[in-house]
Design brief:
heterotrimer, A: 422 residues, Cytochrome-c3 Hydrogenase, chain B, 3-stranded antiparallel β-sheet, B: 129 residues, alpha+beta, Alpha-Beta Plaits
Chain lengths: 422, 129, 160
């Protein structure tokens, strides 16, 4: 069989499965922190295929962006995600700045780097804590999140808020670094580095973590990872040197020396070690940047009308590559804004990772890709004989509940009391 | 083959037992906030001139301008407006503070804004001057 | 982009009557029609080894719907643009060349109504709810108003 037809056979036929072996995972499940729906098709204890259904927190941001002025969109896109909010506003800002003729001042680039790396540290600490939580090691979760509070205190001292920093503006940043922060930042980075080395030791030697993470997750090779368009740590943990900060430097990444981390084993333990090593690299970058930050202005004020054209920009978020595409027709509002988050690009890779794993490993593997999704809830039926599928809306579900629990009231002489409310 | 040494977490456990607790004693003691903390908005009615720049730049639609009559300048009648703030939709970004040319707005350190009655959060100071 | 690569792209594009434009350093736009799109992308991925597909964007261009494939390698981005008319919006899928493009095509199908032939999951909804009415046009077209979507999905919010 030629390569072409073999590949077609692998991607087609995904909807044919035997319905007795379907285990629905989600959308609301105690092992997930956000709603996502995976239909797992099992054979015994092992997973054979996974079918995803996402969109449970879809808010229609791209449509809303077409009716708001340029600056207000920056605040709206910052609120796409709580953990990586700064990188969203940075990427949008860079895509729009490319359409104007202005340059970003050097001091602003260094400040953007410092805040972006602080965000990466806090996101990786959050993730390590969650891996401990899903493995049953609650104590690790508490210790790691305790250290994360120190990072959030630094962020609050610089920007005024712990989560939505609102530091970005077009062609610059809105606030300067406070005075006398340098020593405090350097000392805290040293503390975080020591703690990261200690957590690395726990992961390498502690029996519970090893049993839950070693050789867990289907091993994929480099070519599969590239064909599935994996980004971020999901590409780096199989050995690909793929990092936007290195291949296409933005902000001040071409002036601050660093090296990216790659691993070659293909299991969940490699991801843990990779993210902890990246944390140490980020701490070193922040210490360097704070000592070598240049003097100068922090912002260039630009007009609220952006010239016509199209431009795209990408940044390295803690989870992977963020991509923004902006099209302008010369007005006060954009014509089209497209934002692609890293988790969307990692879902095909996640489906590949789950094949051959047992049901008990599903929370660990799904959290290992560091997901950040969302969707809307509904209930779905599958008739076994005829394989027919239909769904109920929220209103039908409510009526079914009333009929089930209050059968006499449903047939009451005053039916308007329980009428469907549109 | 990793070097399996159970008990790597035990020294840390003893160290944490001897440290003071990490939780803040918040409702019983006041909390320390940094200088740049962005809390509830406040306006100085003396400095506001009704130029409505804050209403135009607000991303959340918090500010509405209320007409308060007219005034004579030379031999022209110019409208007089003042802002009304509905702080229940405020996102605490600080755009209005940055763009006010007369420095009439500032962000205080109040953050305990939860209330069962949304009408408490409407700030009419500038309108009722 | 290395000059060599740009030249190779230009010679290949000339064979299939495609237009190449470079509005800014590091960004290349190539317009290809639907008949040649699959071989063009196969040439870019397999022969020129530009392997990373960032995303696929849909655009509302008035009478047509534009489909933009963004490839990136080092400091360069290559955007391959193709259009389908709104009246008959079917396009060719590239899932057998790049399996990772399956979710991006499902998103364009949900948001713009373009059907990609050859995509095995094209009839499933990715982002829209299951109770989306059939006669409501796809949301990201310029003619669909947000107020209409809110009313049809019973999402009205009381405003003061």
């Amino acid at each position: 069989m030629s390569d072409e037809s073999k590949r077609r056979e692998e991607t087609a036929g995904l909807m044919e499965f035997s319905v007795e072996n379907l285990v629905p995972f989600g959308p609301i499940h105690p092992a997930l922190k956000e709603p996502e729906y995976f239909k797992l098709i099992l054979e015994g204890e092992k997973i054979v295929q996974v079918i995803p259904r996402i969109g449970y927190v879809h808010r229609g941001l791209e449509k809303a962006a077409e009716s708001r002025p340029w600056v207000q969109n920056m605040y709206m896109f910052e609120r796409t995600c709580g953990i990586c909010s700064f990188v969203h506003s940075l990427c949008y800002g860079q895509a729009v700045e490319g359409l104007t003729i202005y340059e970003v001042p050097r001091r602003a680039k260094y400040i953007r780097l410092i805040i972006a790396e602080l965000e990466r540290i806090h996101s990786h600490l959050l993730w390590v804590g969650l891996m401990g939580h899903w493995a049953g090691f609650e104590t690790l979760f508490m210790w790691v999140w305790n250290d994360r509070e120190l990072i959030l205190d630094l962020v609050e001292a610089i920007s005024g808020n712990r989560v939505h920093k609102s530091m970005n503006a077009f062609c610059g940043v809105r606030r300067d670094m406070p005075e006398n922060m340098e020593d405090r930042i350097v000392e805290r980075m040293k503390f975080i580095t020591d703690r990261a080395h200690y957590y690395r030791e726990i992961i390498d030697t502690e029996e519970t973590m090893l049993a839950r993470t070693e050789n867990v997750g289907n091993k994929i090779n480099q070519e599969t990872a590239q064909k599935l368009c994996a980004v971020g740590p999901m590409a780096r943990y199989v050995g690909l040197r793929q990092d936007v900060r290195l291949t296409d430097p933005y902000a001040a990444y071409d002036e601050v020396p660093f090296d990216i981390v790659t691993r070659t084993e293909g299991d969940v333990r490699a991801l843990l070690r990779l993210r902890l090593d990246e944390l140490v690299v980020s701490a070193n970058m922040i210490s360097y940047a704070v000592k070598h930050i240049p003097e100068g202005p922090i912002r260039v004020k630009i007009a609220p009308i952006i010239p016509a054209g199209e431009h795209s920009s990408h940044c390295e978020a803690p989870r992977g590559e963020i991509f923004y595409y902006v099209k302008s027709t010369g007005g006060r509002t954009p014509d089209r804004v497209k934002s692609r988050q890293p988790t969307m690009a990692n879902i095909p890779a996640a489906l590949e990772l789950l094949k051959g794993q047992t049901l008990a490993d599903v929370p660990m593997v799904l959290t290992a890709i560091d997901p950040c999704f969302g969707c809307m809830d509904r209930m779905s039926f599958l008739e076994t004989e005829s394989q027919k599928q239909w769904t109920w809306s929220g209103e039908q579900l409510r009526q079914y509940g009333i009929k089930h629990y209050f059968p006499d009231r449903f047939n009451s002489p005053n039916p308007t009391k329980f009428k469907a409310v549109p | 083959m990793p070097h399996r040494r159970p008990g790597a977490a035990i020294p840390e456990m003893f160290r944490q037992m001897l440290e003071k607790p990490s939780t803040e004693a918040y409702p019983y003691k006041p909390i320390q906030l940094p200088d740049r903390f962005r809390g509830k908005l406040d306006i100085d009615p003396e400095k506001c001139t009704g130029c409505q720049v804050c209403a135009v730049v607000c991303p959340a639609g918090v500010i509405t301008m209320i007409d308060k009559g007219t005034r004579k300048v030379g031999d022209r009648e110019l409208p007089v407006r003042r802002p009304l703030f509905d702080l229940s939709t405020c996102i605490f970004c600080g755009e209005c503070v940055d763009n006010c040319a007369f420095r009439a707005l500032e962000m205080t350190k109040l953050f305990e804004l939860a209330t069962p009655n949304k009408a408490d959060l409407i700030m009419r100071k500038a309108v009722e001057k | 982009m290395s000059e060599n690569l740009l030249e190779q792209l230009q010679t290949y594009a000339a064979q299939s009557n495609s237009k190449v434009s470079v509005p800014r350093k590091g960004e290349t736009f190539i317009d290809v029609d639907q008949g040649h799109i699959k071989e063009f992308i196969s040439h870019v991925v397999n022969d020129l080894r530009i392997l990373h597909l960032a995303t696929i964007t849909g655009l509302d261009l008035g009478e047509n719907i534009g489909i933009l494939y963004h490839f990136s390698q080092d400091k360069d981005t290559i955007q391959v643009r193709s259009t389908v008319p709104k009246a008959q919006s079917t396009a060719v899928s590239i899932v057998d060349i790049i399996p990772g493009a399956i979710l991006y095509e499902m998103e364009i199908h949900d948001m713009f109504g373009v059907t990609f032939t050859g995509n095995p999951w094209i009839n499933q909804k990715l982002l829209l709810p299951d109770n989306w009415p059939d006669d409501l046009p796809p949301p990201l077209l310029k003619t669909t108003k947000p107020a209409e979507i809110r009313k049809r999905l019973h999402l009205e919010v009381e405003r003061k």
